[in-house]
Please model this.
Amino acid sequence: MHSMRASNSVPAAMKTVDINGIRLEYLRLSSSRQREKAPAIIFLHEGLGSVSMWRSFPQQVADASGCEAIVFSREGYGKSDPEPAPRTPRYLHRQGIEVLPALISALELDRPLLLGHSDGGSIALLCAGETQTPLSGLIVIAPHVMVEDATLAGIRKAAKLAHTVDLRQRLTRYHSEKNAATVFAAWQNIWLDPAFRDWNIEACLPMIRCPVLAIQGENDEYATMEQIDRIAAQAPDVSLVKLADCRHSPHREQPQAVTGAITAFIGRVLDDPLR
Model:
């Protein structure tokens, strides 16, 4: 296992894992104060994200929580293999129900915590509610459980802005050339597809058997608070954190508040507050 401690200036080595014939890039980052027998945290990125787009946040969470961080790029993202087929309205279901459990098995992880942002949060909820994968808990940041008018309006606005910048050049900082050429269109096209308008994963929420921490900014440009309120209303054990003056990426905009909430949640889940 390749890992990195906060006190070590040597970067962790990127590795790849084969999941159903698709190579995915991933990193394993150890905590500077690792808890004994603590579960790993798997980071699930947003709709345009990747391993590198998380920047230093996974290491910060690892060091604050005492848990190893595992960060990977889904197919079509980062330097993972391209997506093998066009997306359908069930693309997030496939990631949560098929790919993520296979990754957990391949890396031999015991009851990991899932930490997902945006699309990654939806994938985490699906994995917990639609599979028998043993999990210690979920941390979902700006997740989606349904398609709102605000979601579509935000994506249309992002699409207009994309025409005013060299988007592909920006995306190549975080994705391979091949993935950078397709990642924005793939994200935009499926969410704006009329067939996706009725996408909804609320049916999985009552089936979630692990604790959930749901975090959202009050000024989220892609959603209203209805998203996490519905999670709280339907999943058995949910803690909510609603952040004022915060948009769709709370972990970037208010990292201390988010890391603090995550650390407290993990301490409660493990019944072992980190001193």
Q: What stands out?
A: The first helix runs from residue 57 to 65. DSSP finds ten helices and eight strands in the chain.
